[in-house]
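Please, structure for the following, as tokens.
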Amino acid sequence: MNFNYTLIGQLIAFILFVWFCMRFIWPQLLEILETREKEISDGLEAASRGKRELEEAGVKKEEILDGAKKEAADLVNQASQRANQLVEEAKTSAQEEAERIKVAAQKDVDQAAKKAREELRSELAVLAVAGAEKILGSEVDQEKNADLIDQISKEM
């Protein structure tokens, strides 16, 4: 066993192994490593982009939320103003209706008073004729003296 031949044989085997690895295995390993490095880089970039988008979405959310709050406050104010306006319109309408009812009631009272006066005049005319009959002692013909009764009732 010669130490030099063994060493030379091992050296040749090692050189052949290195050449084989450099020729066939190493390019595939580099390709896999580059692909993985690219995927990791893309993933980190996507994560960074996602984080920025999340922050932007948070800012937009706050803006939208503030806008919605302002819009809701405006709607509440408008509803309150409209409610006050409706209350005022209802008050005005009720006052107008009350005035109209009051005028109608006054007309009804005036008509009832006028009717009562007419009835009283008719009754008074009948009483006057009855009184005249008693005074004269004879019967007064109402048909003949209808004009006289109308004239008396108009004077009363």
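The CA atoms of residues 7 and 13 lie 10 Å apart. The mean pLDDT is 86.
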